[in-house]
Amino acid sequence: MTRIIDFYFDFISPYSYLAYKKLKKLDKNNKTNVSYNPILLGGLHKLGEITPPAFNERKMKNMKNDCELIALKNGIEFVWNIKFPINSLYLMRGYLVVKKEIKPIFFDNCFDAYWKDNKDISQKKNLLEILDKSGIDKNDFFELIEKQKIKDELKKLTNLAFEKDIFGAPTFVVNNKIFWGQDRLEYALDEYHS
């Protein structure tokens, strides 16, 4: 049986960004079989009746400091985005519509634009820049993300994650075991290699 790490993410999650960058450092040869699963974090929180840290002043302040400490400790370029949180709906649908061979480039460019370059990726001009940098036709992209099939697929993926008891991002699933949070990446990798 082929081992796989299911990595549940949302581009607006700073911890998803940090986990992704840590994974890239730990897996320099790209030998780990990772399946990236887009979810709408806001939708997941709503299903679980969870108040996200972004809407709690004390949690938000701690989250910003925490992310900066993690980035510093791991040598990851990171800037707390002044537009946090944003609506990531188009980007998450976008991940579903871009061609398989372009997904890693789009993934990198979205995360870097938001969490490294401090850009508001919900603004069309910045999204167009990401598409151009990723080699994605903007007309196709905007047409496809409005299709009902894609809207339904993202909703379904979010609902399926909720049904698996996933409640935040990033979450890693290996051998049907759930590892939640960027600080559990090493545990997920241990399970993957066991």
Give structural notes:
This protein is an alpha+beta fold. It has one domain (5-193): 3-Layer(aba) Sandwich (Glutaredoxin), CATH 3.40.30.10. 53% of the residues lie in helices and 9% in strands. It has nine helices and four strands, in the order βαβαααααααββα. The chain has helices at 14-26, 41-47, 57-74, 89-97, 103-115, 124-134, 138-144, 148-163, 185-193, and strands at residues 5-9, 34-38, 171-174, 177-180. The protein has a four-stranded mixed sheet with strand order 2-1-3-4, sandwiched between helices. Strand 3 (171-174) and strand 4 form a beta hairpin. The mean pLDDT is 93.
Q: Output the helix-strand order.
A: EHEHHHHHHHEEH
Strand segment count: 4
- Give the proportion of residues in helices: 40-55%
CATH superfamily, called what? Answer: Glutaredoxin
Arrangement of strands in the largest sheet: 2-1-3-4
Which helices and strands appear, and what pairs or packs with what?
Elements: E1 5-9, H1 14-26, E2 34-38, H2 41-47, H3 57-74, H4 89-97, H5 103-115, H6 124-134, H7 138-144, H8 148-163, E3 171-174, E4 177-180, H9 185-193
Parallel strand pairs: 1-2
Antiparallel strand pairs: 1-3, 3-4
Helix pairs in contact: 1-3, 2-8, 4-8, 5-6
